[in-house]
Structures are given as C-alpha cells and as structure tokens.
Amino acid sequence: MSRLFAGTQWDREPHCPQCDQPEAKCQCPPDAGPQPLAVPNRAQKLKLRVEKRKQGKVVTVITGLSATKNNLPEVLKQLKNLCGSGGNLDGDTIELQGDHTTKLEAWWKKGP
What fold, for 47-110? Predict the structure, then answer.
C-alpha cells in the first residue's frame, strides 16, 4: 500500500515520535508498552454515596482515598473506563456521572 503523500513535496519517511529522527537512524530505547493501571491502597476505607444534582442528574461520589497515597488522576481514569461514564476529581473526592455503586463495590472487593 502506498503512502498518502508518496511522490509529492510532502513525502516524508516515517519518523520516531520521541526524537523526530528517521526510524532507520533512531537511537531511542524500545517502548516499554502500556504502564500498569493505578490501584489504590485497599487498606483505606472507601466511602461511596449517590447524590442528586441539578435537573435530576445522579452522581456517584467516592471519598476516603488519600491523594498522597494514591495516584488519583490514574484511579479516576481507570474508574471512568470501568463504569463507561464521565467523571471529575476535586481534591480527594472522585465524582462519576450516574449510579455505579454496585460496579465500584465489586471493583474494590476484587483487589489488585
């Protein structure tokens, strides 16, 4: 299969995204692959509650996870993927759109 700009003035061989050298001359170490997901310290007490917001919107609020002991942005990302919903991080509080208490309880009990 030919490249889109093959034979034009924009024709450029593939380059490394890290060093921007042609792939043949790249000296970068190989990619280590995806990093493991952040797993919170399960010795902490997780507190789940469901709150109703404006216009009848339901939000699951997670508290009890310390920001100093956990990588909360990664935990939020993992939980948003698990629940298939949007979410927000406000200090030590994670908010997920919708009622996801059963999924979150199962996730917490499952462990790392």
Answer: Translation Initiation Factor Eif1 (3.30.780)
Which H/E stretch holds residue 60? Answer: strand 58-63
Which 8-state DSSP code applies to residue 89?
A: E
Residue 41 — pLDDT band, cuts 50, 70, 90? low
Helix extents (H) in 52-100: 72-83
* The dihedral sign for the CA sequence 107, 102, 72, 35: positive
Supply the DSSP symbol for 8.
S
Q: What's the pLDDT tens digit per position in 44-84?
A: 788 999 999 888 899 999 998 877 777 888 889 989 999 99
